[in-house]
Fold:
Amino acid sequence: MKFMDKLNNCRPAPGQLGIFWLGQAGFLLKNSKGELLAVDPYLSHGVERICGLKRLMMPVMEPEELNPDCLLVSHHDEDHLDLDIIPGVLSRNPNAKLFGPSTVCRMCRDAGISQGQLVEFNEGAQGSWGGFGLEAVFADHGDHAKDAIGMVVRAEGHLLYFSGDTSYQCDRMKYAASLGADILIVPINGEYGNMNACEAVDLVNLVKPKLTIPSHFWTFIRHGGDPYLFDREMRLEAPGLDFYFMCQGEMLLWDGKIVTESNPPSH
Structure:
């Protein structure tokens, strides 16, 4: 089934949430109202154009097909703030809002995006759009992205914690860990200051979510990532905590457990 058919045919019941992996750190969430939240969607070749890094995993959808009600952007790196596509996304849907840290909003304004569609969203901020509750939490992505954030999304009675691009810092992540995440989405690439597979497992043990979804690997050769090491360390160091590797373009339907899936979660 083509990705857009899968997305359009997904009709979560009340209490259910559709979760789609776009690749890299990009996700789409679809609630029972049919509202779409896009998190860090990277669908262009902007990183190659700007940094010379060719993407190895091709986009699952055309940029013109992305029409979310809300965008949540963790920081201004090109594979998170995709300015090759975001101005078009927001112009197609003037009611859509983009939530992001100050640097993200400044760069969006410089790209010609209306201030009325931008919501500054720095650590500690809370907000909502449609059926999604949003909170910005701690992340440390180094000096070049000092206002990078982690993101908490509440929808359909579930809580998702996107750690964002960050190193593992136990003390400063305790607040987000205390919120009782149902799903933790965490990078495992171990480059540019991000957690590697072993550090990601440390965060899993701090958060103790119902399900962990690893992300941010294999899109570029420079970003690397070792899914097998994460799998092994989860089994050794976090026994009993479920995790699931999504394919690009795959959908999970979640109601406190996985309702539809290609394979059962690992544990």
Notes: The chain has a mean pLDDT of 94. The first helix runs from residue 3 to 9. Helices lie at 3-9, 46-51, 86-92, 102-110, 170-177, 197-207, 227-237.
